[in-house]
Amino acid sequence: MKISLLAFAIFGSSVLSGFAASITFDNISFGGGNSVLLFDNSGAPLASGAISLYSGVAPTSFDEALTLSATAPLDRLVLDGSTALPGGLISGSFDTPNAGELTGVNLFVLISDESGTQFGAYDLVGTFTKADTPPPASAFTETFNNSSLVTLAAPESGNVQGDFSAIAGPGATDGAYGLRLAAIPEPSSALLAGLALVGGLVRRRR
Known about the structure:
mainly beta; Ice-binding protein C-terminal domain-containing protein; signal; Ice-binding_C
């Protein structure tokens, strides 16, 4: 029997009174093989950290993501036991008081681990417009897919066997696409050699 729940990260914006906007999302999909699950750089399911909503252009490098993480997002959701389920599954919502911040602009989410040294990004394709009112009309609905994931470092993603036991019972697995967060780039071998040379010169002077 094929079990089909909500498609991964369906972003549905509904306009509330006062033109506030609520964007709900999750990656609770089982049985279709189209899930995009979240993992840290070591390959462990992401259990803590944050997912932040930004306007503008999604970062394409680790340095850009690091700079963005220091700025104030439109909204931010902390990943914990209530929002990050076992197996790299997530569920939550952004509640933006001013829908004008979302109107007609490119939106993306930046995913980070608890330490803020690992990142992943997803560029939303849909555009929110107030023309989709009156409430509770859906402003846009979007399903995460591989083509809209932003690569910050390689290799950081690939096919995995997803663990869906948290939502579909013990032993429930299915093929999925795993987004592994990009970690702080390690120093190049040339840089390390240069540091070793400097260290040797300092020791000789002493």
